[in-house]
Amino acid sequence: xxxxxxxxxxxxxxxxxxxxxxxxxxxxxxxxxxxxxxxxxxxxxxxxxxxxxxxxxxxxxxxxxxxxxxxxxxxxxxxxxxxxxxxxxxxxxxxxxxxxxxxxxxxxxxxxxxxxxxxxxxxxxxxxxxxxxxxxxxxxxxxxxxxxxxxxxxxxxxxxxxxxxxxxxxxxxxxxxxxxxxxxxxxxxxxxxxxxxxxxxxxxxxxxxxxxxxxxxxxxxxxxxxxxxxxxxxxxxxxxxxxxxxxxxxxxxxxxxxxxxxxxxxxx
Length: 268
Hints:
Blueprint: H1 2-13, E1 25-29, H2 35-50, H3 60-63, E2 82-85, H4 96-102, E3 107-111, H5 114-129, H6 133-138, H7 150-166, E4 171-175, H8 176-181, H9 183-193, H10 200-209, H11 212-216, H12 235-238, H13 242-254
Parallel strand pairs: 1-2, 1-3, 3-4
Helix pairs in contact: 2-10, 7-13
């Protein structure tokens, strides 16, 4: 009952998708899916391509002049209008007439294997949520207790899976694991999806700036903590026994789309 109520609320009461009009591109990211990394690399590439200063840090506020919130006013008029969001789209996004009226932009959807998202999120926020790994996996159907859990992921996965299935090509799925293997290909694919050109040397500079070692030098003292956290346990260690039983049951009962993942097998 709590979960169904939250789904209805997300689908019908979240009108943030209407702020997406008049943008050249939207970066929509699942929680703990390389958001800071990808936004920072794109921001450096945009800055070098269009001849503006680079962001001083990789924090959310530092990159907002390049890829901001949909409600932000432009800071650098010469840049393409880009924004990012963690939003779960309103049902209006399902209807062709509403999409045309709202002039929804092309989307780049950054996602990661749910097992990795859950492990990363628990490691990052354990000091705040203060629950065991098993209790965290059980989740909160109402969506009140956690910023991200299996119930949040199911709502996010299902709605964007619906949009992707209904409007092929409107959503570019960017798998975090593919970005790890070939970050250049990710930057080029996102730029192509948004129909913007990034200079080759600007992409090269972004790749160099986006290494973990270089990003560690650009930590914002006022930014979000634990962004570059290092998880101690492997996914194979975390998803075993009762933990795997809880996870598998949630996947079977909540998820309608896989978004290109084998949801029951840990990623390599």
